[in-house]
């Protein structure tokens, strides 16, 4: 059985916890898109693990973790994560594989990300400044890209870095009047990356296909969420990878038809970090209530997340383009205490109602949400083990969302711990 877990909103849906739970039944966990912009949080027995590059399944011993071709790898972050887990006696030796074709995020990518965002002022995207956009831009541009495989031939890499850094410095000086960076310093860092990472670098596509042929069970783990997908999200306020379910095949070289189940993850409300349209945003006391109760501050950047009501139009779109089989609804407990809860069932655009998400920001800017209002509940949910343990109003809320998004909600999160999860 192979499954793919993917976010159906603007990221931060609680995928880390779902992946960690489902990884128990998997032999291999695969991270296939994005980079250190992601922040997956897993809480085990009160211990909080915040992972950015390692697959969330890496906390379970014996699971093979794979970082595939479409991930942009920041070796500084990756090595720090490997070290942090080692300190907790979780070793990745002989169970971490990194694609030789994955691109490397270097210091000049982070610098470029920061300089560009600063220069854009109010028009900035609100990136995580992890060098994601510049690294993917170099990948698509080809001439100045560095892949993990390049760490194998340091002599060649040294010459190549001279050319790349010379080019980057011209841009830094001309566009941003910024200090140059040193090619030698970047190269020295690459030498140390090579020392530590070469044992992990391999052909992950071959590994995955051989594993599938041998009947291994694989969990594919998407980072960010469908609405941040470079091709299908709310462009230009998106990340630079295919973060919808559609990105899985390209991201690791395994066709979607080899995956038995696509599981979408949502929160019982919506959040977004960074700029861009957000039709159900509640920039008011409701949004603040959700932010405080749900600890809605970025795992990667610590920024307060924008909060709003559940948007069934956006989620239905993500379900449709991702052929999602079932949904995990997380953070239900965060809504406890609200007297009334809204669910956006349609948008009104130019006086006409639509339930199909307009993934073009000019049309989206004209959309106003049409809400269905349901009564809330006051009972704490942390101890609920079964759907029938939930307050009647919470059950009705879930059933209504199911009707709107037209897929079953089979997993419900009622707290941060592994055990605070209801399976239906
Ligand atoms: P970038 O991926 O750092 O280029 O940022 C582009 C946009 O995606 C910004 O709005 C970020 O806040 C958002 N973003 C990137 N990664 C995540 C994530 O893991 N969760 C939520 N938002 C993210």
Which descriptors would you attach to this protein?
single chain; Adenylosuccinate Synthetase, Chain A, domain 3; alpha/beta; globular; 2 domains; Adenylosuccinate Synthetase, subunit A, domain 2; four-stranded mixed β-sheet; 424 residues; binds inosinic acid
Query: Largest sheet at a glance?
Result: 10 strands, mixed
By DSSP (H or I, 4+ residues per run), the number of helices equals 12
Give the N-terminus to C-terminus distance in angstroms: 19 Å
Shape: globular
Work out the number of β strands.
20
CATH architecture of the largest domain: Alpha-Beta Complex
Into which percent range does the helicity of residues fall? 25-40%
The assigned structural class equals alpha/beta
Strand content: 15-25%
Radius of gyration equals 22 Å
What is the H level of CATH, i.e. the homologous superfamily of the largest domain?
Adenylosuccinate Synthetase, subunit A, domain 3
According to CATH, the fold-level topology of the largest domain is Adenylosuccinate Synthetase, Chain A, domain 3
How many domains, as an integer? 2
What is the CATH C-level name of the largest domain? Answer: Alpha Beta
Strand order of the largest sheet: 9-7-5-2-10-1-11-15-19-20
């Amino acid at each position: 059985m192979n499954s793919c877990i993917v976010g159906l909103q603007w990221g931060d849906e609680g995928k880390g916890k779902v992946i960690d739970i489902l990884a128990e039944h998997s032999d291999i966990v695969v991270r296939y898109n994005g980079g250190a912009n992601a922040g997956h949080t897993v809480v085990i027995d009160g211990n909080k693990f915040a992972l950015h590059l390692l697959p969330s399944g890496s906390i379970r011993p014996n699971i093979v973790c794979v970082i595939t071709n479409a991930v942009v790898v920041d070796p500084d972050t990756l090595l720090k994560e490997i070290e942090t887990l080692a300190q907790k006696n979780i070793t990745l030796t002989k169970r971490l594989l990194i694609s030789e074709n994955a691109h490397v995020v270097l210091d000049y990518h982070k610098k470029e990300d920061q300089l560009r965002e600063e220069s854009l002022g109010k028009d900035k995207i609100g990136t995580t400044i992890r060098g994601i956009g510049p690294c993917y831009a170099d990948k698509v541009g080809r001439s100045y890209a560095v892949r993990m495989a390049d760490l194998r031939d340091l002599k060649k890499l040294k010459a190549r870095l001279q050319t790349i850094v010379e080019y980057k410095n011209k841009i830094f000086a001309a566009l941003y009047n910024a200090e140059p960076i040193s090619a030698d310093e970047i190269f020295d860092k690459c030498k140390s990356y090579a020392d530590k990472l070469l044992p992990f670098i391999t052909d992950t596509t071959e590994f995955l296909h051989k594993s599938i042929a041998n009947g291994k069970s694989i969990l594919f783990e998407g980072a960010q969420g469908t609405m941040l997908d470079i091709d299908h999200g709310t462009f230009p306020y998106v990340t630079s990878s295919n973060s919808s379910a559609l990105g899985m095949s390209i991201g690791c070289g395994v066709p979607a038809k080899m995956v038995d189940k696509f599981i979408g993850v949502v929160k019982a409300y919506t959040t977004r970090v960074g700029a861009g349209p957000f039709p159900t945003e509640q920039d008011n006391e409701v949004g603040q209530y959700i932010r405080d109760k749900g600890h809605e501050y970025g795992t990667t950047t610590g920024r307060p997340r924008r909060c709003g009501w559940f948007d069934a139009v956006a989620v239905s779109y993500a379900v449709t383009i991702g052929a999602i089989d079932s949904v995990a609804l997380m953070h239900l407990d965060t809504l406890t205490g609200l007297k009334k809860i809204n669910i956006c069932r349609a948008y009104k655009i130019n006086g006409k109602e639509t339930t199909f998400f307009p993934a073009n920001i000019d049309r989206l800017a004209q959309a106003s949400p049409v809400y269905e209002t349901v009564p809330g509940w006051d009972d704490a949910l942390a101890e609920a083990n079964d759907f029938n343990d939930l307050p009647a109003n919470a059950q009705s809320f879930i059933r209504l969302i199911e009707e709107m998004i037209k897929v079953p909600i089979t997993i419900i999160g009622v707290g941060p711990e592994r055990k605070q999860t209801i399976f239906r």
